[in-house]
C-alpha cells in the first residue's frame, strides 16, 4: 500500500459518533505506551498525524484517519496502565469491545506488541478474544531497533510460540528505523485487495 494521503477525520467517544461506513477499516491496538501512535505515523509518512506522548493514556477515543481516500485507520485507546480513573478505563474498554464486535467494515486489527518482552497477559487476552470472535488480526512486533538481529529473531520466535502463530503471520518493525514498515504496508494492501 503506497500511502499518498492521510488525514485526521474525527475522534469517537460513543458508537453513535462513528463515521458513515464508507470505507474499509483497519484498527490499531496495543498496550499503553507500546509505540502505537509512532508506528502509525511512520506507516503514513507523517510525523505528527497521530499525536504521540510519553504519558500513557494519551489516546482517549477511537481516532479515525482517512488514508488514500479509500480506507480508515482507527487508532484505539491503549489498554493497560494509564493515568486515568478505573471508570474511564472501563468506559474505553466498553467502547472498544462494542466497536470491534459491531463494526461491519472492520477488516483487520493490527495488534502492536513490544518485541523486547515476553508476551503480556493483556496482549494474550486480546488476541485470544479476537480469535474467539473470528476477527482477523496481524501481530506487529515493534521496537525492533532496541535489539540486535539475533535477539529480534529469538524474541520473535518466543512471541510466536506464546501466540500460537507461524512466523509468516506477523511483522517485526520499528517506528524509529522504519524496519518492517514496508512489509506491513504490503500486508495491509494485500488485505485491502480482498475487500
Please characterize this protein's 3D structure.
With 195 residues, the protein is α/β, with parallel strands linked by helices. The protein has a single domain (6-193), classed as P-loop containing nucleotide triphosphate hydrolases (Rossmann fold), CATH 3.40.50.300. It is 34% helix and 21% strand. It contains five helices and seven strands. The protein has a seven-stranded mixed β-sheet with strand order 1-3-4-2-5-6-7, sandwiched between helices. The radius of gyration is 16 Å and the shape is globular.
In short:
With 195 residues, the chain is an alpha/beta fold. It is built from five helices and seven strands.
